[in-house]
Design brief:
Largest sheet: 4 strands, antiparallel
Strand order of the largest sheet: 12-11-17-18
Structural class: alpha+beta
Radius of gyration: 24 Å
Helix content: 25-40%
Bound molecules: heme C
Number of domains: 2
Number of helices: 13
Strand content: 15-25%
């Protein structure tokens, strides 16, 4: 019996990621709140907590668009994207039988695929039992294997964490280097090698990354003293620890964009030189495909505007039959206009006759005009201009 079990495990892991069921008492972050309230509250405001399709309009509409254009059922696409957006899903692959049944409207609520996609268990997106139940990260696997296909899970109820000496009354603990000395390895499980359905890689933080700085040092903030759990575990006391914040703050937080890039203006004969520097260890805009940096240039004579120009640094995607598309359906992409990690970009513009001064402002937008229109995104956050930096130059 043992032998049979062992061999069937190997077989299943050859063909699709291995699923380990999460017991009800660990499934939701609400279960962790009694002892880890601060962390649960911080995490619940993060975009990891919004990575489920119900909670992110851009993600949901992209799923629908991919399903329409590839003529695949919506649930099959949801399973595909769950690889990174919802890795605790209980079904990791769909087959042709499901597609046929779905097209004919013959699948019921009891179908394992439908059940998996609609399960409450995955409604929290990337929650505690995603990161803290990762037991092993297979960096020896092919680069294209990400999320669910790159990891092994701990048995339900075993939490991986940074401390070697932690004890908890609610769960077992185990310590791993990717929670402590090498956390980038954890982030790269998903923040790397994101590709279109045709295999075109449109974002890869791992290959563009420069230096040894950890993602968590910026996106979870510096280490500071606090308790990791309020439960009085150690001789009637909670232990003081070095901890970080679980906000995973990033592109959706406008205040963070302030000064994320640097700006230098210079006049060179009849040209204006705009130098944009990126002090961060990854490209900007980076990450997901249709992000955009806007460069707004205003020429002035006294206080009157005598000329204006807006440049867009973004990516455009071509799908099949040369149509405008989105990253996930791309067969081709336009030139990379992002500002490289620790790099700089120089834009040259002609001066405007009579202008006495020029003012340049950089903004960031989550989604460019093209893709916002294509997907008909309604929420305001996608079009909002987030201020980065401003500079002016006297031209007299
Ligand atoms: C995206 C991955 C990720 C998610 C999601 C996540 N954590 Fe963490 N967690 C980490 C990392 C990385 C560390 C180690 C940070 C460090 O100290 O450098 C950590 C540390 C911790 C610690 C140790 C104390 C501390 O703050 O460093 C606890 C406890 C913890 N997490 C609980 C939780 C709980 C509860 C949730 C769900 C509300 C959660 N985590 C969600 C990645 C994650
Ligand atoms: C009854 C209280 C309690 C509950 C409920 C609880 N924990 Fe903990 N947890 C603790 C204690 C106590 C520690 C140890 C803290 C320390 O050593 O500083 C801990 C430590 C951790 C650590 C760090 C482990 C390490 O080795 O670094 C993680 C991660 C963690 N818990 C995750 C969770 C998650 C996720 C949940 C919800 C599914 C949860 N905990 C529910 C009490 C609890
Ligand atoms: C299981 C896959 C997975 C892992 C592991 C993971 N992330 Fe993410 N992360 C995502 C996805 C998916 C999103 C996009 C969610 C959305 O916008 O709906 C995201 C979004 C983010 C954002 C953007 C937030 C914003 O407001 O724009 C930051 C920053 C981030 N992650 C940092 C990290 C860091 C740091 C780690 C490592 C400690 C990490 N992530 C680990 C999948 C993951
Ligand atoms: C030195 C600080 C720093 C480090 C280290 C760092 N980032 Fe960032 N990151 C930023 C800043 C600043 C921005 C732009 C403002 C924002 O989104 O917070 C950013 C933006 C992002 C974005 C949104 C990008 C976009 O164009 O939409 C993601 C995703 C992200 N970082 C993930 C990561 C991951 C994953 C790592 C580690 C591999 C990492 N970051 C390391 C500072 C850092
Ligand atoms: C390799 C892991 C991975 C896979 C597979 C994946 N994503 Fe993502 N996705 C990410 C990460 C990481 C981010 C966050 C990047 C950032 O913010 O810069 C993200 C962000 C997004 C965003 C932007 C969300 C926002 O709030 O701005 C959309 C839309 C999206 N993904 C759609 C999809 C769709 C549709 C699929 C399936 C066809 C998919 N993703 C599959 C990793 C993945």
């Amino acid at each position: 019996m043992k032998l049979f079990l062992a061999s069937s495990l190997v077989v299943s892991s050859l063909f699709s990621a291995e699923v380990v069921e999460v017991q009800k008492r660990f499934e939701s972050s609400q279960k962790c709140k009694v002892c880890h309230r601060r962390i649960v509250e911080e995490w619940s405001k993060s975009w990891h907590a919004k990575s489920h399709f119900e909670n992110d309009e851009y993600f949901r509409k992209t799923l629908e668009y991919v399903s329409r254009k590839t003529r695949k059922s919506l649930n099959a696409v949801k399973v595909q994207c769950a690889t990174c957006h919802n890795p605790r899903i209980s079904v990791t692959k769909t087959d042709i039988d499901y597609e046929i049944a779905a097209v004919m409207g013959l699948t019921s609520d009891d179908d394992p695929v439908n059940k998996a996609v609609n399960s409450k268990a995955i409604s929290e997106g990337i929650n505690c039992v995603v990161c803290h139940n990762i037991d092993k990260i297979h960096d020896e696997y092919d680069k294209s294997k990400r999320g669910i296909n790159r990891v092994e899970w701990t048995p339900s109820g075993v939490m991986t964490g940074p401390y070697k000496d932690a004890k908890s009354p609610y769960h077992k603990v185990v310590s791993h280097e990717f929670m402590n000395t090498n956390p980038n390895k954890l982030c790269f499980v998903c923040h790397a090698n994101d590709r279109s359905v045709y295999g075109l890689v449109f974002t890869d933080m791992e290959s563009e990354y420069i230096g040894k700085k950890t993602c968590v040092s910026c996106h979870m903030g510096p280490k500071h003293k606090d308790v990791a759990a309020t439960f009085k575990m150690y001789n009637g006391k909670a232990k003081m620890r070095m901890v970080r914040k679980h906000g995973f703050v990033g592109a959706h937080t406008p205040s963070l964009w302030k000064d994320a890039l640097e700006l230098e203006l210079k006049r060179q004969k009849d040209k204006l030189l705009i130098k944009i520097k990126n002090p961060q260890p990854h490209n900007i805009p980076s990450g997901f495909g249709s992000r955009e940096i806007l460069v707004e240039v205003v020429y002035k004579k006294g206080s009157t505007t005598v000329g204006q120009k807006t440049l867009s640094l973004t990516r455009h995607y071509i799908r099949r039959h040369k149509k405008v598309g989105i990253a996930h359906l791309a067969v081709k992409q336009s030139k990379d206009t992002s500002i490289k990690a620790h790099g700089e970009k120089i834009v040259r513009l002609p001066l405007v006759n009579g202008a006495e001064s020029v003012e340049v402002t950089l903004y960031y937008r989550l989604v460019n005009d093209e893709v916002r229109t294509l997907l008909d995104l309604k929420e305001q956050i996608w079009s909002k201009k987030n201020f980065i930096v401003k500079s002016s130059l006297d031209l007299r």
